[in-house]
Amino acid sequence: MTPGREVAGVVDEVAADVDDRWLGARVVGLLGEASGGYAELAVSSVADLHVLPDTLPADIAVAMVGTGRTTIAILDAAQLTGDDVALVMAAAGGIGSLLIQAGTSVGATVVGAAGGPGKVDRVRELGASVAVDYNEEDWPAAVREALGKREVTVAFDGVGGALGRSALDLLGPGGRFVMFGNASTSGTPTQLTTSDLAARSLSATWAIGPGMFRRRSKRDAEERALAEAATGRMVPTIQQFPLKDAAGAHAALESRATMGKVVLVP
Fold this sequence. Notes:
- By secondary structure, the protein is an alpha/beta fold.
- The protein has helices spanning about 60-80, 95-105, 115-125, 140-145, 160-170, 195-200, 220-230, 245-255; strands spanning about 5-10, 25-30, 50, 85-90, 110-115, 130-135, 150-155, 170-180, 205, 240, 260-265.
- The strands form three sheets. Strands 6-5-4-7-8-9 form a six-stranded parallel sheet, with helices on both faces. The chain has a three-stranded antiparallel sheet with strand order 1-2-3, covered by helices on one side. A two-stranded parallel ribbon has the order 10-11.
- Helix 3 links the parallel strand 5 (about 110-115) and strand 6.
- The longest helix has 21 residues, at about 60-80.
- The protein is elongated, with a radius of gyration of 19 Å.
């Protein structure tokens, strides 16, 4: 098994039944369950490829075609507006950094929570109105103090565990809790009950999984994500490693030493 689902590069060879006009095209695509991206050469079906404009770098495209696609689905579930106060957990991560940009672009007040001073600084650079370190025990109090009389209206939770529960508790009446992962050390999704929802008229959504593209197709989400990157409205945070140091990239991910999307470069 060769890992790696998202790839970008130049078409070097085509099958006999594929138009020769694909030769030399700059493309990006998802390889699906077959994987095979950790290589100098990869094979893809034409249907899974997008031709890249000259202005869109390959590393940005490869970050957006998968992570960006997922972010678009999460945003579709959240329906952010300029009236929202959005709390983004794991805000320095691949999805979190894109959610910050999406929130600020529609005029929402964005609160970014991340682990460690370096990541908090990055959250501020991305444009969050409030940035907090959720490794600090009193981080929810810091959020409440920074917001004053305003309350969180939507919380994006890709962390789960106790941190996710704290995010849920920060939601004001009528708030939306949008879950998309459980990256906490406990490895468990945020625990909640119908009583939690009823007490404050909250809604909760698991935004990824089999039903995430029920409104629009996967390809549509990929095209929208790439368009957002091409216009500069959503630009992924990228950390590059050479392909030969793929093991080092995985070690950095497992130790939570990375920020944004990790991209391997042959």
